[in-house]
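Shipment paperwork, digital attachment
Item: protein structure file
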Amino acid sequence: MTNVEHNASVDEKPISSLSLAEFTTFTIVVIRSCAEQFDH
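Attachment content:
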């Protein structure tokens, strides 16, 4: 395994975690927006 391949494999996990966090935040925002529309 070269250093480039090693760095690429290491960088995949933080990106996946960040994407998951962004997706979760986006979902929460959408749910809150829908809830506000139903309340009003």
